[in-house]
Amino acid sequence: MADEKLQRAIDHLAISDVYLVASEARHGEEFNPKAAHALEGLKVQTMHLARRSEILETDKPDRYLLRIVLGFGVRWISESEVEKDAPQIRAFVEADYVAEYLMDERLEQDAIDAFALQNASYHVWPYWREYLMSQCERLRMPRLILPTKQFPDNQKQ
After folding, report:
1. Number of domains the chain contains
2. Which of 14, 20, 42, 111 could connect to 5 by a Cys-Cys bridge, CB 3.0–4.6 Å?
């Protein structure tokens, strides 16, 4: 059933645009990545979420614009603090992207949700990977190479 809804969305959506809508990157208080041993014992944690979606009407009948907002993030914490509820963050990079799709038929919310959770990331992921690698260099943090694809952490919800 979920596969049918996803396929229906794929059949009626065409990628139109991908763009950055929010970003933040910084070091934690008193963290200096160039200090001796500063990068030793750091653990990387990632975030990838489908935040929300919205349908906008266009000036053409039976044509809509679907906007899906995807959130991404990486943070570096000490390995000794991995199990803590609020670990001290040494550095982080976060970004929200919008993926816009032309929709030739108004889809049910279930189909849109399936698409947002299982497919939209394919279009945004390359932009996030490039942005993250660029920010790591600017922050003087270790270069991270992400996999070529990944699905949102909230995909199972």
Report:
1. 1
2. 111
The predicted structure's pLDDT at residue 81: 83
Residue 148 lies in a domain: no
Give the residue numbers spanning the domain of 113.
Answer: 2-139
DSSP string, the chain: -HHHHHHHHHHHEEEEEEEEEEEEEEEPTT--TTSTTTTTTEEEEEEEEEEEEEEEE-SSTT-EEEEEEEEEEEEEEEGGGTTSSSPPEEEEEEEEEEEEEEESSPPPHHHHHHHHHHTHHHHHHHHHHHHHHHHHHHHTPPP----S----TTTT-
Asked if the structure places residue 121 within a domain, the reply is yes
